[in-house]
Design a protein that fits this description.
Blueprint: H1 9-36, H2 45-57, E1 61-64, E2 73-78, E3 85-90, H3 104-125, E4 128-133, H4 143-148, E5 157-159, E6 179-184, H5 200-214, E7 226-230, E8 241-246
Parallel strand pairs: 3-4, 3-5
Antiparallel strand pairs: 1-2, 2-4, 6-8, 7-8
Helix pairs in contact: 1-3
């Protein structure tokens, strides 16, 4: 039971922890639901729906479809007193085949749990809480266009927590850019008239070989990963279109 006066740091921490504990069962259920229903980037409709529903139930004002990104959202709660603006980042997209291997079903609920806990004391200390729903973190992401549009400009700080096998207060992260290369050639029958074709898949293979040759000169903190997403439709047809994606 809390006995300290309002405004006391220990009192506020206790109230935050008690609020989170009181909602823990519900938070875990939502996290499990998202984990059992993985959705790829920009397709996180179930996750966005259940997260925004919970935030509204907790008294946050929710705006959906930020910057015309259908599965993004921005939830906010402001005290009547002035104070800092806290930005909490929620990620909830999954990976192909392996689902939530990066734990985004945990990340979103950690941020929402922190927001709900902080809301229990924000009216006493002043300020604004925002939860940014940022889809497609595994690919192009929503944070970059949100930042470019100035949505974080008045935030005093932004933070999130990421699952890890050990406890770390902070750490280094690699910046990421997503690139797609598309090559167009000319289709031809591979047996009857291969000389009439221009093989787009050959261009993609040359791209991979060139990147592999580059790796020995890359610094130790550089990573390049690529896949061929389109490379033809049949072995007896010269591919006229091929696509590779890289991170």
């Amino acid at each position: 039971m809390m006995t300290n006066k309002k405004g006391d740091q220990a009192f506020m921490k206790t109230r935050i922890f008690e609020t989170i504990d009181a909602n823990a069962k519900n938070f875990i259920q939502i996290s499990k639901y998202i984990g059992e229903n993985p959705e790829l980037g920009h397709e996180e409709f179930k996750a966005a729906a259940v997260l925004t529903k919970e935030l509204e139930a907790q008294g946050f004002q929710v705006e959906r479809g930020i910057l015309d990104i259908p599965t993004s959202f921005l939830a906010s709660y402001s005290s009547s007193k002035p104070g800092p603006t806290v930005a909490l980042i929620a990620e909830y997209d999954a990976l192909p085949e392996v689902g939530h291997a990066c734990g985004h079903h945990l990340i979103c609920m950690m941020s929402i749990g922190a927001a709900v806990g902080l809301k229990a004391v924000i009216d006493d200390i002043g300020g604004t809480i925002r939860v940014y729903g940022t889809p497609a973190e595994e690919t192009k992401g929503a944070k970059v266009p949100m930042a470019a549009a100035g949505l974080f400009d008045d935030a005093d700080f932004a933070m999130m927590a990421h699952p890890y096998y050990a406890y770390e207060k902070s750490g280094e992260s690699l910046a990421m850019d997503a690139l797609q290369f598309a090559y167009r050639g000319r289709a031809a029958h591979a047996a009857a008239s291969p000389y009439d074709g221009i093989n787009a898949l050959d261009a993609v293979i040359q791209l991979f070989n060139s990147i592999n040759a580059l790796r020995q000169q890359l610094k130790s903190d550089v990573r390049i990963h690529g896949v061929i997403t389109e490379g033809g439709t049949a072995a007896n047809i010269i591919p006229d279109y091929a696509v590779a994606q890289f991170l």
